[in-house]
Amino acid sequence: MDLKKLPFSDSSPRRKVVVSGFGLGVAASFIFVCILLLNYSFKSPFVTPVFTGFSYSDNNNSDSTLISWPFSFSNASVSLSSKASHNVENGNFSVQETKKIDESGIFSNLGEKGEILGNTHVLNFSENVKNESFLVQESGIVKKTHGSEIDGNGTVLGILDSTKYNVTSTYIEDVVRSSGGDRKKVAVGDGKGGLSVEKNGVLFQSDGELLIRRDKDFYGDCDVYDGEWVRDDTKPYYPPGSCPIIDRDFDCHLNKRPDDEYIKWRWQPYACDIPSLNATDFLERLRGQKLVFVGDSLNRNMWESLVCILRHSIRDKKRVYEISGRHEFKKKGFYAFRFEDYNCSVDFVSSPFLVRQSTFKGKNGSFETLRLDLMDKTTSMYSDADIVIFNTGHWWTHEKTSRGEDYYQEGNHVHGRLKVLEAYKRAISTWARWVDQNFGGSRTQVIFRGYSVTHFRGGPWNSGGQCHKETEPIFKKAYLAKYPSKMKVLHHVLHNMTTPVIYMNISRLTDYRKDGHPSIYRKEYKTVEKQMAGVHSQDCSHWCLPGVPDTWNELLYASLLKSRKGSWKN
């Protein structure tokens, strides 16, 4: 063939070279883009080693993680994903698996023992995810926080916009591992809480300030009632059978309960650690003072627990005694244990409603009423106290109070019918006014212990409800009851008081403990037949001692330390 006859042979031989080079470049680019699209569409790891410095290795593990970093000029997004695809849009950052990012920028899966199962090099992992959303997913429920940031070590930094998103308690376990090999836990607190890490981690509160580390004290904005029960073989504070002042109804050990796992649990807040109850320190701070529990039999449960804890620290037990010499405390009245070495007392005043039980003379004779507008006559027994712990709740569930017919009285008027929640509100308001009038501005520390949840299954307390086969706590929050409506009423009343009141919100932590009740072991049975009959009359309201009320007193000690009032300042 004569090359001179070709159109381009004479006039532009150099242009032929240029066109060929351009075509090759376009073709190569097209192939390259196609590979990228195929890789993204089918999640194939084919080209992953190319973009990860050839450091991709699954180590024969099918759970190895694939990282994608789609960036745009307007809004960079970060996605951490594994086999299941996750949406990445508008700057959302989703965490769904156990992973670790080390200082060199290697993103790794962690095994059950913290070992690295696979890693992917993500170059310089120092991108901050600011003013975007941080999603925390547990059991399909997505919780949101705001303003999260990730530093170069892979540490999750951030705060909770709890007022906007109303974040409830949840957590992700084993998100990262410390240099010492300890597992960490990221927790999302309730209300005012923030991200917390179990050991050597960073904790933030909702206003964006760095709060405390988990291994430091709890004096900051830490909700000690938001947490979980963890196994602790160092419990209880006093050995079973060592405290003779426990009522027989609460002494499950004496009544031959066969298991003892219920005493080996400790309450652990998510956001901070709380101190163990130091009985000697408690008594020293109580020196020369009077502490009084006022309320129903659940407060007697707590009172007996505290007396046992404090008594166990005294060498000469004879120097701890009930001032009237009584050994049984079920009857209504006033009881006081004196600790001679510290010149102090720990008392109990029976007042199940806090307001006054009364009688009313009607046309057809006298009948019992509850005066919602008057305090109980027992107020003189604790008006001089240094610390008062109030409670009322369980007697409001009984038939007469629940029905509310011809029972609630105000002045000379007996309500033909009044809903129990409204009656409770009026009674608590009467209590609040009395506290403001008598303790406002005084040295007295006022505390209200919240509602202790019951666990009757198969019926109420008086018609066959049971809990005797429960041997471990509830572990899933989905099985917990709703927050008690009476405690919502209490919140409203406390908010309008002038006297500072410490609210011990123990409802949720007790709800977990279906295993801690006396059940059929509220007394000892002489025969198998009597024990079988006892199945139909169980106690799933009160608590075994040692047991759950010991934790209430641990939280009482922590609350008094946090108050920094009087002898509890230092």
From TrEMBL:
Keywords: Membrane, Signal-anchor, Transmembrane, Transmembrane helix. It comes from Solanum stoloniferum. It is found in: Membrane. Residues 221-273 form the Trichome birefringence-like N-terminal domain. It is a single-pass membrane protein. The keyword Cell cycle does not apply. One of its GO terms (cellular component) is membrane. This is Trichome birefringence-like N-terminal domain-containing protein. InterPro entries: TBL (IPR029962), TBL_C (IPR026057), TBL_N (IPR025846).
